[in-house]
Write a structure and sequence with these properties.
The protein is mainly beta. The protein has a single domain, classed as Galactose-binding domain-like (Jelly Rolls, Sandwich). The protein is built from no helices and ten strands. The strands form three sheets. Strands 3, 5, 6, 7 and 9 form a five-stranded antiparallel beta sheet that branches. It has a three-stranded antiparallel beta sheet with strand order 8-4-10, with no helix packed on it. It has a two-stranded antiparallel sheet with strand order 1-2. The radius of gyration is 14 Å and the shape is globular.
Length: about 120
């Protein structure tokens, strides 16, 4: 992972064709991923989040401009850290223009301390 980032973001390679070759993994409660997005129109968007997880009880939330936009979102067990599933979250309201979106790790698996692996997220 250090080939792409020199800070403390844990990334790993994946053969998942949807995830662009890499994922963010080894996630822990309290960590977050932050992105700047530009909404082309004011409307409700669907947000797709690509996850892989072993265990139950893990959750994250999506914040838009510092405000919780989703509440807790459970991360399903996919059976392996490299078996991927897409979660679709409907009705994420964005006004036209630039926004800061954070994916915040909220709860870890009952079986281990991980929240899950994240391949991508995209608005539609």
């Amino acid at each position: 992972g250090n080939a792409y980032r020199s800070d403390d973001v844990d990334i790993g390679p994946t053969s998942d064709p949807s995830s662009g070759g890499f994922y963010v993994g080894w996630t822990r409660v309290g960590e977050w991923l932050k992105y700047t997005v530009n909404a082309t129109a004011t409307r409700d968007y669907a947000l797709n989040v690509r996850v892989a997880n072993v265990g139950s009880g893990a959750a994250f939330r999506i914040e838009v401009d510092g405000v919780d936009a989703t509440g807790l979102v459970g991360v399903p067990s996919t059976g392996d850290w490299n078996i991927w599933q897409t979660i679709t979250l409907a009705n994420i309201a964005l006004t036209q223009g630039e926004h800061v979106v954070r994916l915040v790790m909220v709860a870890h698996n009952a079986e281990n301390s991980g929240v899950g692996n994240f391949g991508y997220f995209s608005f539609q």
